[in-house]
Amino acid sequence: MSQPKQPLITVIMLNWNGKQYLDDCLHSIQAQSYPALQITVVDNGSSDGSPEYVKNHFPAVNIIRNNKNLGFGGGTNIGITGCTTDFLVILNNDASLHPDCIKELYEAISKDSMAGSCASRIMLKSENDRIDAAGIVVCPDGLAIGRGRMEPTADYLDKKEVFFASGCCALFRKTMLDDIGLFDEGFFAYAEDTDLGWRAQSRGWKTLYIPTAIVYHHHSGSTSGVSPIKAYLVERNRLCVAIKNFPLSLLVYGLWYTVRRYFWQAYGVLFSRGRAGDFIRQYTMFHLGIILLKAWLCAFYMAPLMMKKRRRIRAEALIGPDRYWDILKRFGISARAIALKS
């Protein structure tokens, strides 16, 4: 008896000046045991010759060239919009896949019609016994981080439901994206996956973490690990996530949570712990204060647009305010834990 034909899956890889990563990434896609793949590279206006390199060395790969850097959401959305397959994988250019990764993701999602996405076990390329992200965990103030970040991979070997998949590598069901919409292009970079995850939760979709779907990741390969622009975008965008998605009671509580998180980040600055401690080793407290002020001011400037999007999300939500608290209980992280993680 012949095996049923497996559906074609589109792999969308976003690139911006990541020529040094293209060989590893694209070869790992071409080496997948899943037999029915098509690859699209969306280039965000690279100046390092990336599009020409792909054209010359990977002629079977479809290339979409943007004239400028449209950010993660803008670039990825162009790839998704042109996708005609029922399933798609988004992948960072600085990631490479275990040969069975996509096969494991597809086998899991095909068995659960309410699974709109699957998260892979993303391990740090530099320390492949350490987790980069096993899905994501979320905070009541809109912030999020990779689940299990910097923890031993042996602690994350069980398949389970998680909040959402990291934008580094995820398999999406196209019908989920048709239902909830695409990445918010106004974010430019960081927190787009968190925002998409809250919208998926509001519509009743779930995400499965598949530990056998392994990815190796150069963390922050396209941006520096700690930088003023990254700190600014993370803080601004987490405020936008909260304004756009959270019920009023959670917005109010999120302010108290933020105070606690800032306290622990101040502790991290003093004792060189967490990302705040990493930041202060390269920059000054004055830099950090200006970044936070700028992020809050810009988030307030963006608030009317976020409120407009919020009204639509709330009108289409299939869950009530109490459900958001349940989600945080299941998939949340404490202010201390996220503040002191590297």
UniProtKB/TrEMBL annotation:
GO molecular function: glycosyltransferase activity
Transmembrane segments: 279-303
Domain Glycosyltransferase 2-like residue range list: 10-180
Keywords, alphabetical: Glycosyltransferase, Membrane, Transferase, Transmembrane, Transmembrane helix
Similarity remark: Belongs to the glycosyltransferase 2 family.
The protein's name: Glycosyltransferase 2-like domain-containing protein
